[in-house]
Amino acid sequence: MGRHARLELDGLSEGDDDDVRKRSGRLRAAVHAAGGNNRVATRANIPLGTLNNYIAGREMRVGPMIALADACNVSLDWLATGREMAAGVMADAAVSGADGMRPVRYFHAEPQAGAGSMVEQWEGYEVVMFSDYFIRSVIGAWNNNVFMVKVSGDSMRPSIENGDTVFVDPTPETLREDVYVMTMQDMFIVKRLLIRSPDSFTISSDNSAFRSFDVPSSSVAWAGSGMDADLRIVGRVTGRIHLGL
Known about the structure:
Distance between the termini: 66 Å
Oligomer: single chain
Number of strands: 12
């Protein structure tokens, strides 16, 4: 394909300046709903500068467009053509609602052993309403599937105390050094993940009375990924509620 060739995507020509401008606008809205430029660039494995250029009006090739649609949880057809409403953008608008409130699942206790690593499999929750501003600006969760769970045990003291409730974002993203909700051998755990080398993660407790252990990176996967893994990541802890002075 020559330098001046145009890519045809289901009847759409990338060479149309008006189409490119509209596509950049849809990308801007989708990125905002998905948590912002930095988060989406990380999920899509695209340089931040490249994403910024796309939002500013640069043409997107098919590969990056597919990655960005997936990272933003929108359909490729909508991002490319605008022919259908983006699921993530539509849900974001619907959840916020006229009163700006968002429903969040609150699990009263840690799931029992064998409950699985998918939140949809867990039982014993109620829905609590929070303002959209609180969830986004205070908790730092931009997706609509954030949930809360009450934690037991003192392995993460003083960061997380026995009985604290944590906010968890289950959106898959590139793992970084942070606190995660995980399952290992069907047991629910909340631990800090440390990156010691490209080949392994260290699973650590903030309480020095508990020993850390290493897990090969090949044995770690996000819940629902379909990959065989000894350690499954349920979600990243974005905040906590602690009662008491």
